[in-house]
Each structure stands twice: as structure tokens, then as C-alpha cells.
TrEMBL record:
Gene name for this UniProt entry: cobM
GO molecular function, one term: precorrin-4 C11-methyltransferase activity
CDD domains in the cross-refs: Precorrin-4_C11-MT
UniProt-listed Gene3D superfamilies: Cobalt-precorrin-4 Transmethylase, Domain 1, Methyltransferase, Cobalt-precorrin-4 Transmethylase, Domain 2
InterPro entries attached to this UniProt entry: 4pyrrol_Mease, 4pyrrol_Methylase_sf, 4pyrrole_Mease_sub1, 4pyrrole_Mease_sub2, Cbl_synth_CobM/CibF, Siro_Cobalamin_biosynth, Uropor_MeTrfase_CS
Any one biological process term the GO annotation gives: cobalamin biosynthetic process
Keywords associated with the record: Cobalamin biosynthesis, Methyltransferase, S-adenosyl-L-methionine, Transferase
One Pfam family here: TP_methylase
Name of this protein: Precorrin-4 C(11)-methyltransferase
Family: Belongs to the precorrin methyltransferase family.
Pathway annotation from the record: Cofactor biosynthesis; adenosylcobalamin biosynthesis
Length: 247
């Protein structure tokens, strides 16, 4: 028996990996985040599979479901939105499973920031413009940020920044980043990336907050800040350079 933490992708049902889909098709138990995971994916579950929506469950209740499946010798597909490696709350579940001696495995998925970049038609690492991407969020009502990971500190690097779970604080975000990136720095907000109702807002640190408020975006959005979003005059990469020694 194994609990498989499966990255379901950013929203479009066909962005789950082949490996993730195979786990889903064979697991007799599936726990899924109902508010975030596309319901179409559940059609891939085996007939008669136990389906549990975890949207309103506590950690204790979720772990109870996983350990019960372990006692019954049943594999579990634990569906998480995006990729389990970031902002997924997988770590705390794994800690409990390790303590209980329950085997587990992680199946990666397409993260929301990757889907957002794809929708924008942009690479987030552009030669000569930006080679570092910071994935972060803001505190607000969520878990407090560790010391040294505030936006002012991170923004001092000038690196391309991707913010999850922050669109409700767009005014504070732009105010904190503006001194480091400049008012004219390109910003994009992608809400519900890859879904049929996806919404893309493009602007700068000077006007993106107003665009977000006007559009009424309050959740399920990624904010991307950086010069890479508008880069055009940049050197070609060394990878494909005619001057690179090959062979």
C-alpha cells in the first residue's frame, strides 16, 4: 500500500502527468482538494473508488483517511493542485505518515507559475535580463513568513518574482516592491491559469493594482513581477550559440 501525493496541475484536466493519471486510474481511494482540483479528473478513478473531498477537512481528518486506507491495504491517490513541491501542505501530511509508518511517494505536477508563464507566452529566465526566479507569497491571514523572507528583502535582489496567495494584498505588494523594481517594471496577474475562465492582466507596478481591483480578481491568481516579461533586446543563450564548442 502506498499514498501517492499527485500533482494535479494548475487547473486544466489534461495537464496532469501520464504517471499521475495512471496512479489515479488504479487507486481504490482518492482524496482530492475539491475547490482546486478539476472534477473531470475524478472520472478516471476506478469504478467504486472511495472519493473524499478534503476541502473542509482538518489535517487530523485527512490523516485518519490515509491511515485507514493503510490498514485496509488500499493505495491512495492524494490529489493536490499544481505541484506538491510548493505551497501544497504536503510536508505536514508526510510527517504524520512517517510517524505512522505509512509508505508514500510524490508524483510531480505542473505548477501554477509554469502555467501562468505559458499563458503569457514568456520564459521567466531570459539571458542578460533575469536568471533567477523567486517563488514566494505574503503572510496576510496565512502562516507567517520566516524572518528575512519579507518582500522588501527579497525584492532587493531585483530577481523575477512570482507570488502565490497574494492577489488580495495587491496594493501592499506593489508598494513594497516598487522601490526595488521601479514603477515601470512589467507585472502580470494570471487568474485561474489554464482553465476555460482564465484571466490575464498585464501592466506595471504603477497600475496593476488598479487593474486587479477593476477586474475583481481576489483569489486563485499568480502575480509575476520582472523585466523578463517585456524583454526583447537580449543576447542569445550560450546553449545554441554558434561559438559554443560541441562534441
Amino acid at each position: 500500500m502506498t499514498v501517492y501525493f499527485v500533482g494535479a496541475g494548475p487547473g486544466a484536466a489534461d495537464l496532469i502527468t501520464v504517471r499521475g493519471l495512471r496512479v489515479l486510474e488504479s487507486a481504490p481511494v482518492c482524496l482530492y482538494a475539491g475547490s482546486l482540483v478539476p472534477v473531470e479528473l475524478l472520472d478516471a478513478c476506478p469504478p467504486g473508488a472511495r472519493l473524499v473531498d478534503t476541502a473542509n477537512l482538518t489535517l487530523d481528518e485527512i490523516v485518519a483517511e490515509l491511515t485507514a486506507a493503510h490498514r485496509d491495504g488500499l493505495d491512495v491517490a492524494r490529489l493536490h493542485s499544481g505541484d506538491p513541491s510548493v505551497f501544497s501542505a504536503v510536508a505536514e501530511q508526510i510527517r504524520r505518515l512517517d510517524a505512522a509508518g505509512v509508505p508514500h511517494e510524490i508524483v510531480p505536477g505542473v505548477p501554477a507559475f509554469a502555467a501562468a508563464a505559458a499563458s503569457l507566452g514568456r520564459e521567466l529566465t531570459v539571458p542578460g535580463v533575469g536568471q533567477t526566479v523567486i517563488l514566494t507569497r505574503t503572510a496576510a491571514r496565512a502562516t507567517p513568513m520566516p524572518d528575512g523572507e519579507d518582500l522588501a528583502t527579497l525584492g532587493a535582489s531585483g530577481a523575477t518574482m512570482v507570488l502565490h496567495l497574494a492577489v488580495q494584498r495587491i496594493d501592499e505588494v506593489t508598494a513594497e516592491l516598487l522601490p526595488h523594481y521601479g514603477a515601470d517594471c512589467p507585472v502580470a496577474v494570471v487568474a485561474r491559469a489554464s482553465r476555460p475562465d482564465e484571466l490575464i492582466l498585464r501592466g506595471t507596478l504603477a497600475d496593476i493594482a488598479a487593474l486587479v481591483h477593476e477586474a475583481g480578481v481576489k483569489r486563485t491568481a499568480v502575480i509575476i513581477v520582472g523585466r523578463v516579461l517585456a524583454a526583447s533586446a537580449f543576447p542569445g543563450s550560450h546553449l545554441y550559440s554558434a561559438g559554443r564548442q560541441r562534441g
